[in-house]
Structure formats: structure tokens, C-alpha cells
Amino acid sequence: MFNDVGPLELVTLVVLAVLVFGPDKLPKVIQDVMRTIRKIREFSESAKQDIRSELGPEFKDFEFEDLNPKTFIRKQLDNDDLGLKEIRNGFDLKKEMAEVTEAVQTYDSDSAPSAANGSPGASGGRVDMTKKPEEDDRPPFDADAT
After folding, report:
1. CA gyration radius for the chain?
2. Cα(73)–Cα(84) distance, rounded to whole angstroms?
3. What mean pLDDT, rounded, does the chain reach?
4. 3-state percent helix, strand, coil for the chain, nearest multiple of 5
5. Rounded Cα–Cα distance for residues 54 and 48 (Å)
6. For 87-110, how does the pLDDT look when each residue is reduced to its tens digit (9 = 90+)?
7. Low complexity: which segments have biased composition (predicted)?
8. What is the spatial distance between Cα 143 and Cα 6, in angstroms, rounded to a whole number?
9. Residue 8: is its pLDDT beyond 80?
């Protein structure tokens, strides 16, 4: 709960408490705060028990910490009922990328002989963006539509 409170901050809080409540009332205030925290904990535990009893026997191992998405995902990844480890281990990104690269290189090398013959695939399926399109290739322009 107080994981990020350093020693200097803790000393500052104690000095501030002594200044606000005084040294004679401080023990009584600490007791009241501790009693309130205990009551809140008891209330939350009883509420958890009520919820578990209402859910029924199929949720007897239900933990409220599992509602945290990170905890839920971590627990599901550790539980191999779904076969997630097989899926994760079966997917090799480097192998997939090597196959795609090889396929692209094979395609480029296959289209190279047709480029020498001057066939339509001369540029390897690429479009030359530097040349102007012919007049017939342009779509009709409708000035009223714009």
C-alpha cells in the first residue's frame, strides 16, 4: 500500500501528525485510525465471502485478484488447457519472414526474363510514376460534382 513512501516522507508525515494533533492526542488518533482500518478490512472480507457464497460451488476457487486484466492473462498463459504454448512455440517469425523474402526474390527473378523481351511485365509489375498518363486513361472530370 505504501510502497512508494520513502524514509524522509515518513518522517515528514510523523512530524506533521505531531504538530496537528499534539503529542498527547496522537496515540488516541493512531488507535482510532487503526480501528477504522480493521473495520474496513473486516467489511471487505465479509463482502467477499458473501459474494463467493452467492456465486455457488463452481466458483469456490474464485479470487478477486483475477479480475485484474494482467493477472487474468498471466494466469491463463500459465494454464496450458487451451494449448497456448503450442501456438506460441509453433509461430516462428524469423522463419515466416525468410519464406516471404524468398518468395519475393523468386518472383523478381522469374519476371526478369520477361523484362528482356519487352513484355507488359517488363517493370516487374511496377508502375512508372514518372511518365504522364495518356489522355484516354484519365477519368472524366465533372466540374459540377466538385
Report:
1. 36
2. 11
3. 77
4. 70, 0, 30
5. 10
6. 666 777 788 888 888 888 887 777
7. 111-120
8. 71
9. yes
Instruction: Please give the angle made by the CA atoms of 110, 112 and 114, to the nearest 5 degrees.
Output: 90
Cβ atoms of 121 and 114 closer than 8 Å = yes
Residue 111 CB partners (closer than 8 Å, separation 6+): 121, 124, 125
* Tally of residues, the chain: 146
Spatial neighbors of 13 by CB under 8 A, at least 6 apart, are: 5
Q: Do the Cβ atoms of 123 and 115 come closer than 8 Å? A: yes
- What is the spatial distance between Cα 110 and Cα 103, in angstroms, rounded to a whole number? 10
- 50-99 pLDDT, tens per residue? 888 888 888 777 788 777 888 877 777 766 555 666 666 677 778 888 88
